[in-house]
Structure prediction request, 227 residues.
Amino acid sequence: AQSVAQPEDQVNVAEGNPLTVKCTYSVSGNPYLFWYVQYPNRGLQFLLKYITGDNLVKGSYGFEAEFNKSQTSFHLKKPSALVSDSALYFCAVRDIGSARQLTFGSGTQLTVLP
Amino acid sequence: NAGVTQTPKFQVLKTGQSMTLQCAQDMNHNSMYWYRQDPGMGLRLIYYSASEGTTDKGEVPNGYNVSRLNKREFSLRLESAAPSQTSVYFCASNGGQGYAEAFFGQGTRLTVV
Prediction:
């Protein structure tokens, strides 16, 4: 089975400060990992993914994520938050060796305070 | 560049009514998906189609049927709507490879009263 945990329902950060949105996963094999963002009344937009190779993945809008196999984590980060980053963020996983489809976390609401 | 298009955007149904949610993609993707989004539960897979002519159940298929009409179109049907099916429904597509990111439609907000 595969699963994703986003331990924080809500993250608040001041504009200009670094932000982190946490994600841990569980798969039986090796993972493909994804981050998506959802703005109000919109569909999900792809931010970045980890397939293999470098543990630090860079994506859209200045976001990056670090894959940590020993901690089974894939935390989303940004060095300097913008008010416009306020949105709902989803982590997702797919087990490479499985026919299972993407499994999403429950989502983390990020609010960047001006 | 339309991407994934869903219709309708909003719908209110009475319990027991039926309806079909339509989805079309113009990216020549092999795989298409239907998800539902409920507060605090993330996105849950209802059905998917790995390629034209095939469909498979996801995590929460009960009460739903799907049709992969052709490579572009993948519809979701509620035969007898129930209040528990009140949700936001998203269609998505990707190239079918395990590492490929999915592209999502704008969603359909369905209320069953």
Remarks:
- The radius of gyration of chain B is 13 Å.
- Chain B has no helices and eleven strands.
